[in-house]
Amino acid sequence: MLKIDNISKQFGKKQVLKDVSLELNPGERIHIIGKNGSGKSTIFKIITNILKADAGQVELAENDYVGALIENPGFLEYESGLENLKFLGNLNHNYDEQVAMKLMEKFDLDPNDLQAVSKYSIGMRQKLGIIQAVMENQNIVLLDEPTRGIDKEGVATFVKLLDELKQEKSAVTIASHDEIPGLKYDRELLLKNGELASV
Ligand SMILES: Nc1ncnc2c1ncn2[C@@H]1O[C@H](COP(=O)(O)OP(=O)(O)OP(=O)(O)O)[C@@H](O)[C@H]1O
């Protein structure tokens, strides 16, 4: 499974990550905490190849498939929620409409709603962001502040979804400042001064 080895990253003179290492285990749920600007999103961006590390390695196993929700998810603004999921799923030839529709219904989003995503509320966008990160059976799921803007019912649905992912042996890593009601982690890690350590 995913293994990060001694990742370092600098922006200008600022060393954001210093020799960060992390190994995920199947079914494990990890919480990464750290102040604003400590580098949590940067770790996720390096894992997903949005950013390149200055040093270190990201190793994925052959059957690892990463799903991620990082910062504000980008969508095709003038398309509906379901069209967006279809577009994203088809990029990897992994789209299953039944799965996408079911997940939308679970999160109280109407799959038949033709409203453009540009008209979605923050919480609705966030729900769509969570769905795209898990709808293709990704076995590694990275979620940056996943419950931001989501209502109580949506948070409960999210927690239930995470329990299902655990049963399916997906490894879920969440960066979050908030305590998510009902959610327990297997490991808590603190990112401080560029270093990632157990709490
Ligand atoms: N593309 C970039 N160019 C320059 N600096 C960047 C870039 N991306 C991130 N940074 C800087 O790196 C640091 C870490 O940012 P990052 O977004 O990873 O923090 P974070 O821990 O996710 O913060 P938050 O809790 O606020 O989401 C910040 O000082 C940020 O300004």
UniProtKB/TrEMBL annotation:
Domain of life of the source: Bacteria
Gene3D superfamilies xref list: P-loop containing nucleotide triphosphate hydrolases (3.40.50.300)
One term of GO molecular function: ATP binding
Limits of the ABC transporter domain: 2-199
PROSITE patterns: ABC_TRANSPORTER_2
PANTHER family assigned: ABC TRANSPORTER ATP-BINDING PROTEIN ALBC-RELATED (PTHR42939:SF1)
Name recorded for this polypeptide: ATP-binding cassette domain-containing protein
